[in-house]
Amino acid sequence: MYKELNTSVCTLMTPGPVEVEPRVLRAMCTSILGQFDPEFTELMNQTMEMLRTVFQTKNHWAFPIDGTSRAGIEAVLCSIIEPGDRVLIPIYGRFGHLLTEIAERYGADVANIETDWGQVFDPQVVIQEIRKVKPKIVAMVHGETSTGCMQPLKEIGEACRELDILFVVDAVATIGGTAVKVDEWKIDAAIGGTQKCLSVPSGMAPITFNSRVEAVLLQRKKIERGLTDASEPQNQQARLIRSNYFDLSQLMDYWSPVRLNHHTEATSMLYALREGLRIVLEEGLEARFIRHKLHEKALVQGIQAMGLKIYGDPNCKLPVVTSITIPDGIDGESVRRMLLQDFQIEIASSFGPLKGKIWRIGSMGYSCRKKNVLHVLGALEAVLIRHKVKVCAGDAVQAALDIYQKEE
Q1: Quick check: is 10 in a domain?
Q2: Residues 379 and 239 grouped into a single domain
Q3: Could you tell me if 350 and 239 lie in one domain?
Q4: Is the whole-model pTM more than 0.85?
Q5: Percent of the chain at pLDDT exceeding 90
Q6: What pLDDT, on a 0 to 100 scale, did the predictor assign at position 235?
């Protein structure tokens, strides 16, 4: 016989998933409504409205894709990429490689530029490459959780708009934790995530896109319905959107007043997203961003007071992820195991060239609070002492408390 589910209570300080807001968990227990019940479709409308505010956009289209964050990325890219389209993807961490793989799977001719992990691009370097490559689409990661770095986007977005290039941004790690200014930065399509700064379980991917993207979708929809001029090339079949589930042109009908059935909506997840967004707006965007910066500052001061080094260029640090260089001769996975087993705290390692070289601590959403920061600092210090690392015992928590006393 299987026992009743009773999972451990952990302090999640990874770059995702993070601890879910208790009010979100309560919302998920709400009674199920039919997906076309007027009460439910009104919740859909409210979710769209709140997403526009969080994305800082006046776009009409702002809704979630059912699936994890990657589902949102795939929905946007597969819906606007036609075979042979030139796509420029600058890479400064793991998730630039993910954008590249997805774009290539849908037939894109991808051009990459790369910089060292722990750095970001000077926007002028990207703009110079845009003028050289002349792509249809530029796709970039805003907050690269694999390194803890954040890419400035405003100048790049302005250059793309000037050159009539679509600008797609992976804002999975940043939405709800730091500013994502879709309209001001001239972003044509942005993808967010629920399981990070929104403090909602993984399972939906909020997206938004503007009329420039909509025009591409509607043109492809005409091809699908055979409404294009007969003189067009014979390879129209190759220009169809390859996915049914991720076809934004169909999802637009589902999220419009037409309510054309596309899939069965993930009812409880929509409740969760709506409540998560409501909580974000109740706190206020600017207040929320200030809160994330405060706890980041306390965490960084504590880490440095302990004698550890922050990894990466501090000028481009992602406010919601702090990367720490693992001291020489230390088994990073042993430290993580002890944190989890003895303190019920989970932090993350990294990928690729940084595997075994850094730890990553997320301070996102509901996990981003004083109790958690002090807990992880004290526990990490204790575990490092057990691993014979020379640390400044007692200084980490005191340094964080100094920040809180000055700025709270």
Answers
A1: no
A2: no
A3: no
A4: yes
A5: 94
A6: 58
